[in-house]
Amino acid sequence: MTKKLLSTFLFVASVAISSMNAQCVPNVSCIPAGATYGICPDSATGMAIGTVGVPYTQVMSMMVPVDATDFGFTGVPITSIDIVSVDSLAPGLSYVCSPAGCSFPGNSSGCILITGTPSTVWNHQVIVNAMGHASIAGFPVSLPQTNKQYRSIVVAAAGIESLDMTKFDVDQNSPNPFSENTEIHFSSVSASNVDFKVYNVLGDVVFNNQFRSEKGVNTIKVAANSFSPGVYIYSITNGDKTITKRMIVASK
């Protein structure tokens, strides 16, 4: 249960970045009334999508309980939960905390600020290292924790801002027409099995592939030498919905 407490705060840290002098103001209004702890935004709401070369900012607010009663340690006071490091953030992003030093006392509210300009497409698990501090029978206890988040800040390539990240969505391939290679970007709200098919103008399937998509932005690369010059229809299906677009393979 202690791991659950630490994992909750570790997720907050996985989304923090900023310059050394940056500050943030916690806003825990979205945490349910009566709750003794929580994070805003939570895992359901998620964090803002980043774009390569575009400045990024995300504030995560957290409320720390006074003790570990809700986690199976009745009456054990929480001294603090300290974020030691956040690994696997996208290049160009960093984090700072308020209070400074990323030490969140028990029975307090604080925040983590993530800022920077991501330099590459990114969608990796974020690894957060933290140290919990408690007091049992008057004796200080340290509880080191390493937590792999089940999701991360997704950084998309420039030029695909038209994708709706709140649902399954497919962008037009680019470039189009193409004579060498093209890319198709699509968004997924969760990891899922995906079917990618290409049809000729007669409706025949000329290419078919199945794969596992990740939550966030996914990319399909298509080589022109796999097709004869002409007009094609491609479709992407996530099991519940199919989206189709037209692409043109040009002569070299």
Task: Considering the chains and any ligands shown, give keywords for the structure.
252 residues, mainly beta, Immunoglobulin-like, 2 domains, four-stranded antiparallel sheet, 17 strands
Poorly predicted sequence stretches spanning 5 or more consecutive residues: 1-21
Largest β sheet strand count, sense and barrel closure: 4 strands, antiparallel
**SSE pattern:** HEEEEEEEEEEEEEEEEE
**Overall tally of structural domains:** 2
Assembly annotation: single chain
Mean pLDDT across all residues, rounded? 81
What is the rounded distance between the termini? 62 Å
CATH architecture designation of the largest domain: Sandwich
- CATH topology term of the largest domain: Immunoglobulin-like
Alpha-carbon Rg, integer: 23 Å
* Overall shape: elongated
Number of β-strand runs:
17
Strand content: over 45%
Helix percent reads under 10%
What does this structure look like?
- By secondary structure, the chain is mainly beta.
- It has two domains: 154 residues, Sandwich (Immunoglobulin-like); 90 residues, Immunoglobulins (Immunoglobulin-like), CATH 2.60.40.
- 5% of the residues lie in helices and 46% in strands.
- It has one helix and 17 strands.
- The strands form five sheets. Strands 1-3-7-5 form a four-stranded antiparallel β-sheet.
- The longest helix is centred in the N-terminal third of the chain and has 12 residues.
- The chain is elongated.
